[in-house]
Amino acid sequence: MRNVSTRLLLTCAAIGVAGGLVFAINAWIGGTVAALAPLFYGFTIGVYFLPGVVAQYVIRRGGVALLTAAVAGLVTAPLQPIGFWATLIAIAIGAFQELPFLVTRYRRWNTWLFIVGGIVAGVVCAAGMYRTLAKDALDASSGTILMTGYFVAPVVFTAIAVLLGAALVRTGVARGLRAERARVTPAA
Fold this sequence. Notes:
By secondary structure, this protein is mainly α. The protein contains six helices and no strands. Helix 2 packs parallel to helix 6.
């Protein structure tokens, strides 16, 4: 990240703190869902994709998803049952969100790249949960419900984050934050 200004860091921090507070609320809701209806827990994990995508959409610079997710993870760590693991999970998700843009060398910021990142994350989450939980312990219909939640949530919440980011850009908060080449984005 070149030319990192205080404004950029504070923007990432503000988005990260808001995301961390949402993570903390979601941890208790998700924990309740996991205890009462564990097959539907996957539908709650998409919240962890919000801050990184919002930061990327608003700022459009490399590394901002990782930085924002790290801040969100640090904010939420003392507020939820899994503690510091929340920070590591958030950082992993932030790093994952950087990948589609890293492949383009941070030159393209089309909306479809955000969605592709959400789809790939959904496939990875669903496959990981199937391998960890569903493969031996669940029947086919229960495994399908579990994997659908883990696949759909990252995609849906990535789309919501893009909409939130677009709303923030319309307010003018992104002026002066974006890299020169990211200021004009071709149509999706």
